[in-house]
């Protein structure tokens, strides 16, 4: 004991009192202050005025005797430890006094200094421990929390009033019963799990779970579990402190839902919430802070208005200051003690980029009408501003585009009265159309058609597209044809309130289509005429081929098949001409270079030489156009000469090259200035066609003027038909050169 111990002795025998004092002087190893009284009343009076640490009392005093002496002292000073001094004959009274609250008793004549010192120290410490235990018991009993002790095998051993209030069971109903009576069916294994955790030395604080009340209601609790050890340090039980958090959980859930809704609203709408305390010059932020400003929430925590104002665009600062700061700070008197404002301005983000801000706020005022807080919502409207600007520009371009165009736009209400007209058709004025119906403007037959279309759209709610004719006299420009799209016009909630139409004048287009149709019909007639003529040529070729076999009684099948294949190729050469002609824009002229490319590809395929190594080389000048009278015989010439090379120039699987060259030579009598396009280039032009191969060549025995082969005969005939020149060079392989002139195409 570190402090001085104040000791009071009740003793009417001076000898016994002196003996006690001598023992203390000799054996006390602590500081003390010792006082003696001889009567009960004297001691009780002293106890009222002084704070003492321990009482030593003889039970036989002049004004009190026996157990009553202790009871009187203890009743008035229950917090001070009392040691009873008895004679040998009064030892039973000492034991009784200990039972009633005394800390110890000593028998006079048997006590020594060491025993006295130990008894004093023990009594003081024991009294303190009892007080701590009692205080703890009082706390446990008065606590609103459930404080329960259960054994390691799961039986309830203690139960306070808080447990009775939370779980609904009085102590007598649950003491000695298994703790599982409090566990919902879904958590039956929880007690064993928690017990094992405590046994392994784990600490369990604020463990949230569910428990079952006596009335069957499941409640939410927060529990703290602690081990209880016996005097030897062995785990003997578990103390459980539980608090009913059912209402707080509900409130927490409501708060969570509210905060979640708030978070979702602010995040989904991209809003930033703020509260400006003008008295403290602090702004508190919430919502999409970093997304809008570029600053983290920590960087703006408790910032003043200066940061915000300094980041407002210089051109907008005055407006923002006057309306948001200065305006809110004025004495504004109204019944609600508040003033609303709405601003749009530019704000500089942390990265230096300016964005457009929409700021809605309210100024809250005190009773003296001075604003003390500003609450507001900010939103980044940069994209909206860009969209508005783009829309403005688009509308401007729309107006410019429609100005002077053939497009008419208008709307009509449910009664089909014109409510808006843009870019009216020639002969109409906006002021003469608005408020009127089609029957007031057009001829009866036109008005009936227009009205029927629009009523059908109003009834069905589905748009449609039509070609409509406006009948007008020739003096007014004649009839007009419009491509008209009609759509239902709806209000903001989707209710049909009329129709909106876009009509394009396609009168000239329809006239052009009619003209082109006539041209196409003429073109088809011309092609059919050409086909008829060429079929006659084919028939003549077949007659020539047949004459070759007319005098033979025995036919060589291979020669017959070869002859038919040659005839087939001649037909194909003319068919390709018609294919090119039909696909071109000209009635009777085709691109001969394109034709030769397709013809040679077809011949290679027909004679199956594509994989043999024989090479076809075309050197053809671009944009050479021939009419049918030139193209057909020239195409057949190429067919005959290329076929001849593919059949005879490379016997025994030899490889080589077949080459076609076609170029143009301009007649000297025409100057270059007269040639302005491909058609003009055909005036007075001569062409050189060279078909050659590097094969075995043509024997000297074969003469161009007197050949008995049908192919050479056809080439000679066709060159004469074109009034051309034919030359054969046998130096290296075979090289046929044909020169033709093409007359001016008038």
Question: Please, could you describe this protein's structure?
Answer:
By secondary structure, the chain is α+β, with helices and mostly antiparallel strands. Among the domains are: 5-138, Rossmann fold; 143-250, 2-Layer Sandwich (Beta-Lactamase), CATH 3.30.450.20; 405-510, Beta-Lactamase (2-Layer Sandwich); 557-666 and 681-743, 2-Layer Sandwich (Heat Shock Protein 90), CATH 3.30.565. Helix content is 42%, strand content 27%. The chain contains 21 helices and 29 strands. The chain has a five-stranded parallel sheet with strand order 2-1-3-6-7, with helices on both faces. The chain has a five-stranded antiparallel sheet with strand order 9-8-12-11-10, sandwiched between helices. The chain has a five-stranded antiparallel sheet with strand order 14-13-17-16-15, sandwiched between helices. A hairpin with a 5-residue loop joins β11 and β12 (235-244). The radius of gyration is 60 Å and the shape is elongated. The model is unreliable at 331-336 and 668-682 (pLDDT under 50). InterPro entries: CheY-like_superfamily, HATPase_C_sf, HATPase_dom, His_kinase_dom, PAC, PAS, PAS-assoc_C, PAS-like_dom_sf. This is Sensory transduction histidine kinase. Residues 526-744 form the Histidine kinase domain. One of its GO terms (biological process) is phosphorelay signal transduction system. Residues 205-257, 341-393, 464-518 form the PAC domain.
